[in-house]
Amino acid sequence: MGDHSHGSPQESGTVAKAQDDSLDKIQDPGLPPHRARLTDTDPRAAKRAERQVAILFAISMIGTVLFFVGYFAVGHPESIAEIRLQNMLLGSGTAFAMLGIGVGIVHWARTLMPDHEIAESRHEVRTEEGRQEAEEIVNTIVDESGISRRPLIRNSLIGALALAPLPGIVILRDLDLTKASASEIVDRLRHTMWDKGVRLTRDPSGTPIKASDVQIGSAFHVIPDGLNETEDPLNEKAKAVVLLMRLNPEDLNVSPEREDWHHDGIVAYSKICTHVGCPVALYEQHTHHLLCPCHQSTFDLTQECEVIFGPAAHALPQLPITVDADGFLVAQSDFHEPVGPGYWERP
Amino acid sequence: MTTDTVYQPKTKTGRIADFVDQRTGASGMVKEFGRKIFPDHWSFMFGEVALYTFVILLISGTFLTLFFDPSMAHTTYDGSYNPLKGIGMSVAYHTSLDISFDVRGGLFMRQVHHWSALLFVASVSVHMLRVFFTGAFRKPRELNWVVGSTLLVLAMAAGFTGYSLPDDLLSGNGLRIIDGIIKAIPVVGTYISAFLFGGEFPGTAIIGRLYMLHIMLVPALILLMVAVHLFMVVVHKHTQWSGPGRTEENVVGFPVGPVYAAKAGGFFFIVFGVVAAISAFFTINPIWNYGPYDPSPVSAGTQPDWYIGWADGALRLMPGQLWDFSFDWIIPFPWGDNLLAMGVLVPAVVLVALLGGMFVWPWVERWITKDDREHHLLDRPRNAPFRTAVGVAGVVFYCVLWAAASSDLIATHFHVALNDVTYWLRALFFLGPILGFIIARRIALALQRKDRDIVLHGREAGIIEMSPEGAFTERHEQVDEYKLYKLTAFESPEVLPAQADRAGHVTRSEKLRGSVSKFFFEDRVAPVTKSELEEARSHHGHHAVEGHDDKELEQ
């Protein structure tokens, strides 16, 4: 029972008992006798197995041909149906080609190669002498280098080695390709394209929205006017997307400082979930709930989008809106707080 | 090296071998590996599946790189898939569509790549479960367990980086979630996000960077770890199940050449064939249905690949707010307020803790049992009830998180409220592992008692006999000596109470170890001894086989 690896009595005299009463153990009868297979005793069975293996290899060849049929006969597919057909032919051709070989070889091994189990003894992973020698060699190396005798060299080397990798870290600073300073990196998360007078437009067409077009119960996916003309539309969109909905004004519980943020029951909220940033894409009209399909954070539109369920920890930011002279919806300003998930510098 | 040898090869093989050997010394390798013995058991196949799916990933992945362009530059689709014609998208998504529709066999290769990636992580996981539940991680294989755990993490990293490359709507939303998680990291999160994405999310850098990780760094690390892993398997030799003729000092099985090589080599083709068949008939990741990434839309019922599910589930289960208490913690510092997004950090810590527990378990078990011996014989899971119970608790915990990743689908499929599904899963998050632990341990102990019963009283023969008095009994037959040995050849660690150190103190950690040992081993079932067996057999001479006293099974 692996006794050769018992620790010395000093260091692990308390190893779990290796069944000290080993005399009382049921005896190991040794390997069971080998049972001959049909193919070992009957030459006809062996011949049959040989043919089966050959047939399996032949199936593999047919599979390869099937692949070529799929590739050349179908040619460049012109419709979804043809793509599906080609994928099926290539796939089943490959499957037969591979399974024919694989099953054939395994069948060969199981029926015709010897199935006597052989015992081999284990060798110890290490020997005591080997370890002792290694230790001596390491000691000699350390000794000859003089590193333990000359602390001045050792300490200055440690200092140099500690500093040397730092450029390797610092040089990664420009992974941020925008050349933004540290404070700009933090600061830009607070700002979106929204500003005083920026029109609310439909996503993705970019057409402006008249207040009179927004019916009670309806919802619009909104982007700021001019988004598609910016340099990085996706970056701007990732922060600026807004959901626009109209409720019965009596259903809205408006806090005093947000009295004029809505226009006659039309409210606009950031569409970026405050949990980890998925778009809050689902609006449940009759309950006035907004739901994020990624992790099911639920926000109550009537309570200024407070979290009522799920993993989000703060409300969706509201975009203050009004109408311009032509009756189109416009922003009064940017969001008053950063949109999206929380981060260290957010408060 | 002398070239002047006495050995004169007679066959053609011999001459080639001689040529190679005189220049490389390869005959030593042939001697070492040619007839090396590998034990055979179906449960040892999962590691092979992992290795083979990785090879398939390399083959299919190389093909895909020939056509894929990881650029996020804007372009307009002009390929042959009509519904997307004229739509603006990134070059990465465009070339992914081209691979699917305009390169013959490209769709097949994409399917093969994705399916074998799913299978790769699955087989690594199942392989690790096998190693865990059979105790194959014990000395001297602890370090190889660590290498294997690293491989699991790398496999998930490879999967996630690859999942993000096509730049479709689904993968873009996955990246957005990653961005949200990174931003939650205290102090440095905002900057790491900026560095990773090359500016603000999504930027134009991330796909190219993930591509580098996906096709170079991560696979190189995986290859390195696989090499170390297999090298250690050779050094340690494979574990084997205990049984007649199998001891801690030997390995019983088939030699590499020809049997094992044929079976293992053939198995590669079988795995490849199965992956090809699945790829032929089952669509995976139809990116053309999702459309290009756009930060505004997202489809309901989206799911990550299965191996990221547990992480997604952890994010879903964590409440962001409990009543009026928000898990966005505002921490006042002298320089101003900062935010700890505990709603994201707590799940991240839970995930790291579960992975960390996996890494260190061999040392935890060693600390509890103080077992410093080498183990080459595997435990049947029932014969290590404590370890089996811990493993089942871990699996249940993982599965609760996994189920949570589908909470919305569970709700719509079974017509229950989404909120209720989440509440139940939150309860199971705490209760599930405890129940799993208790139930698994009881089942393991019951199976051990059943084994004792079979050894002592024989197996049920299925023959009903009527005695002259008219009583019906079932005949029991004694099992043969091989089965007898198999059912009794196991170790059953005993409770090891806290011990005093040399100075005579019982340290606090030793006290803790003692109580954990008591908790794990107080219910142990010992293997049947020879004297017990003789006693039971003589007992049978006098009485009916049935109706034994159950108490004698208790140790």
UniProtKB/TrEMBL annotation, chain A:
The keyword Repressor does not apply. Residues 239-330 form the Rieske domain. The chain crosses the membrane at residues 53-74, 89-109. It comes from the Bacteria. The keyword Transferase does not apply. It is found in: Cell membrane. Keywords: 2Fe-2S, Cell membrane, Disulfide bond, Electron transport, Iron, Iron-sulfur, Membrane, Metal-binding, Oxidoreductase, Respiratory chain, Transmembrane, Transmembrane helix, Transport. InterPro entries: QcrA_N, Rieske_2Fe-2S, Rieske_2Fe-2S_sf, Rieske_Fe-S_prot. Pfam families: QcrA_N (PF19297), Rieske (PF00355). CDD domains: Rieske (cd03467). It is a multi-pass membrane protein. Residues 1-44 are annotated as: Disordered. Residues 18-27 have a biased composition (Basic and acidic residues). Iron-sulfur subunit of the cytochrome bc1 complex, an essential component of the respiratory electron transport chain required for ATP synthesis. The bc1 complex catalyzes the oxidation of menaquinol and the reduction of cytochrome c in the respiratory chain. The bc1 complex operates through a Q-cycle mechanism that couples electron transfer to generation of the proton gradient that drives ATP synthesis. Belongs to the Rieske iron-sulfur protein family. This is Cytochrome bc1 complex Rieske iron-sulfur subunit.
Automatic annotation (TrEMBL), chain B:
The keyword Membrane applies. Its cofactor is heme. This is Cytochrome bc1 complex cytochrome b subunit. The lineage of its organism: Bacteria, Bacillati, Actinomycetota, Actinomycetes, Micrococcales. The keyword Membrane applies. The chain crosses the membrane at residues 49-68, 117-137, 143-165, 211-235, 267-288, 339-364, 384-403, 423-440. It is an enzyme of class 7 (translocase). It comes from the Bacteria. Residues 16-242 form the Cytochrome b/b6 N-terminal region profile domain. Pfam families: Cytochrom_B_N_2 (PF13631). InterPro entries: Cyt_b/b6_N, Cytb/b6-like_sf, Di-haem_cyt_TM. Residues 532-555 are annotated as: Disordered. It catalyses: a quinol + 2 Fe(III)-[cytochrome c](out) = a quinone + 2 Fe(II)-[cytochrome c](out) + 2 H(+)(out). Keywords: Membrane, Transmembrane, Transmembrane helix. Its EC number is 7.1.1.8.
